[in-house]
Amino acid sequence: MHRNRNLDVIRAIWTAGDTKTAVESAINMRDQAVVVDLLNILNLRKTLWTLDLCVILLPTLKDLLTSKYENYVMSACSSLKLLLISFTSLINNTIKIKPTGVDFSREERYKKCSKCYSYLIATRGIVEERQHLMGKLGSTFRELQLLLNQLE
Fold it and tell me: pLDDT tens, 52-74?
């Protein structure tokens, strides 16, 4: 019942068109099942992903990678893969050059990319450990490892 109530709250925020707040609310509920439900929707709707969502979700994705529930791990892996495919080149190109002068949007993007980079580097150790697993989970982690290796 608790999960349904949480999902109703998230659905109301989501339907109002505020994806970022819906994600933040799901994370703040500290209910991994609700976060995974939301991730599964985001994974199907790739255009909803933004740099802001990456910054918000990466710490939670890292936690989900070590979950005892395989479907949570797979959802986190799918999100991480999508994020890496979509944002690695932006992150790499942005953090290469520290912003100078008064370009607030560039400076904000630099901060977000730096945070994403740090979170992704922190995630790398978990991926390296788990890539030796057998089966689909292991091959998924090996694929993530290849994508993480593209970070400079």
Answer: 999 999 999 999 999 999 999 99
Q: Rounded to 5 degrees, what angle do the CA atoms 119, 86, 14 make?
A: 80
Q: Structure tokens of 134?
A: 């057998």
Largest CA distance in the chain: 53
- Secondary structure class of 65 (helix, strand, coil): coil
Q: Which residues contact 148 (CB under 8 A, 6 or more apart)?
A: 84, 120, 123, 124, 127
CB neighbour list of residue 100: distance below 8 Å, 6 or more residues apart? none
pTM value?
0.91
Q: Are 90 and 83 in contact (CB under 8 A)?
A: no
Separation of alpha carbons 20 and 84, rounded Å: 19
